[in-house]
Amino acid sequence: MNKKNVLYIKDLNKIYSKNSSKSVHAIKNLNLEVNEGEIFGLLGPNGAGKSTFINILAGTTIKTSGKVNVWGFDLDINPRQVRASIGIVPQEINVDPFFTPWSILELQAGMYGIKKKDRITETILKLVSLEKQSKSYTRAMSGGMKRRLLVAKALVHRPPIVILDEPTASVDVELRNKLWDNVKQLNKQGVTIILTTHYLNEAEQMCDRIGILNKGNLVALDTTKNLLKKIQTKIVKFLVDKKVDISNDSLKSINILSNEKNELVVSYEKSSLNIIEIIKFLNDHNIKILDISTDDGDLEDVFIRLTKN
After folding, report:
1. With bands split at pLDDT 50, 70 and 90, how would you rate the model's confidence at 265?
2. Is 71 within 8 Å of 1 (Cβ atoms)?
3. pTM beyond cutoff 0.70
4. pLDDT at 296
5. How many beta carbons lie within 10 A of that of residue 262, not counting itself?
6. Tell me, what's the pLDDT at 31?
7. Residues 205 and 247 sit within 8 Å (Cβ to Cβ)
């Protein structure tokens, strides 16, 4: 295994057998490597296999076949070391309402066998901005605070890899930004982050590389930058001095989205047409361009194209 790989998955399969005649192939021959120090996004629609994959790493679901190696430990040979190398922040908020953040982290540290002198409870609470609430009962905490407490719980044993499963679901924008600041801070300290999210703009902003799962298959695996480059459709809005006499047949691959008195919006395939050709067309027709704005599409376009049936 390459030294830079903290997670190495080879030909991973998970089949759920409902009965003798019907089974669900949740993960199909998955091959994946995650590099040390990166923020890796694992995306996919509901039922794509993301939760099954995380549960296999957590040890709560047993794989059907394949190889899983985490931080140099083989899941079949060293399951305890694999679990100790990972901190998982689950989707569901599940914290005891009658405990304080401090006592929850201390209890978690005890479960991992961490001696009192080696615990970093205070440091973790500061990292997730909960030091002021450290001695308050969790029942008095907001949903966003509880979500950050789950991140803190995952960090108690100082794992080199942290998996965040839909970490900002049902969190307002301000708390979401706070959580991402925490994640970036963790990553700066050398922690490898694996993130699943439904918010594609988050993945676009946060992730170095992205894998897209669909029906158990890995349908894309690339840098975020390269995935965005694959979008061929470009949208351009022209502010002009008068209405343009243009049709879908005027230029190769052009599509007129709207054509108002002072505004023309078109889309075109980047492989077939250049924006210079559109500008030349407008100039040739004595149209004065007052302003141009473009939209190259986003990760949502890639996601829809790769996961649509």
Report:
1. very high
2. no
3. yes
4. 67
5. 12
6. 97
7. no
Taking alpha carbons only, the member of 182, 191, 195 closest to residue 124 is 182
* CATH code reported for the domain at 230-307: 3.30.70
156-177: average pLDDT: 85
Instruction: Please state the domain extents for the chain.
Output: 36-62+82-223, 230-307
Read off the tokens for 224. Answer: 């975020």
pLDDT at 2: 46
The one-letter code for the residue type at 97 is P
Which residues are CB-contacts of 197 (< 8 A; sequence separation ≥ 6)?
A: 41, 43, 164, 166, 167, 168, 203
State residue 162's pLDDT score: 96
**Would you say residue 309 has pLDDT above 70?**
no
Are 97 and 137 within 8 A, CB to CB? Answer: yes
Query: What letter does residue 51 receive in the DSSP assignment?
Result: H
Find out whether 186 and 32 touch, Cβ atoms under 8 Å.
Answer: no
The two three-digit tokens of residue 77, written as one number? 């040979």
> What's the whole-number mean pLDDT along residues 132-154?
91
Count the Cβ atoms, other than its own, within 10 Å of residue 62. 9
Rg, the chain, Cα only: 24
Mind spelling out the 3-state secondary structure of 221-277? Answer: EEEHHHHHHCCCEEEEEEEECCCCCCCCCCCCCCEEEEECCCEEEEEEECCCCCHHH
Report residue 67 as tokens.
């190889």
**23 Cβ contact list (under 8 Å, min separation 6):** 15, 16, 17
The CATH label, of 3.10.310.30, 3.30.530.20, 3.40.50.1370, 3.40.50.300, for the domain at 36-62+82-223 is 3.40.50.300
* Residues 33 and 25: beta-carbon distance below 8 Å: no
